[in-house]
Amino acid sequence: MAADYLVSSLPALEFDAPAPLSLEEFDARCREQLGADPFSRLEEKWRDLETQMRNASAEERARAREQDPSKWRRPANGCSLHWQNRIREAFAEKDPAKRERLLDKARWDAAADMTPPQSPLSREAAFTYRIRLQIALKRQSISQEAGNAAFERAVGTGRAGE
User: Are 127 and 114 in contact (CB under 8 A)?
Assistant: First the structure.
């Protein structure tokens, strides 16, 4: 019952919209409603799905460099061709910003696989929300100004005192 209340009380999340709350605020709500470690069994399932997607990314990067991808693959249970194809489609995009958006969108969509269709207000739905919130917060932090500042720090082109 607590998961029903939690999920139904959360503000809506949209892929390219600002995150409506911080991860800390979300985690506090979860601890209040679901206990200290509400997602331990779900984290393993997500980690496996994410590993499959990371392996597909490693394979695409290795393919682009004409290298053997096996040294970058990590063990994972299962093999989802759907998500591998989504990653492959993302890597077909030449623009790095568009490619990153497509990769984030694939993760966003994969997070939905964590919620059973018959349980839209479940603990699993709260976990899906957490994953998507992390993606929204990451995307929110990406900006041209932040990228330029990181570039300047990396190559040392910034003026002293900035």
Answer: yes
